[in-house]
Amino acid sequence: MPARPGAATLLLAGALALATGCGGAGSTPPGAAAPAVAPAAHPAAAQLPATASATGATGPVGPRPPRHHAARRPAPRPRIVADFIPLTPRRRAETHAYARRHYGLDLARLIGPHVIVEHYTDSDTYSSAHNTFLADVPDSELGELPGVCAQFIVDKTGTIYQQTPATFLCRHTVGLNWTAIGIEHVGTSDAEVLGDRRQLAASLRLTRWLQARYAIPTANVIGHNESLSSAYHCEHVAALRSQTHDDFNRGDMDIYRRHLGAGPVGSSRGPGAALHGPSCAGPMR
Question: What pLDDT sits at residue 58?
Answer without folding.
Answer: 35
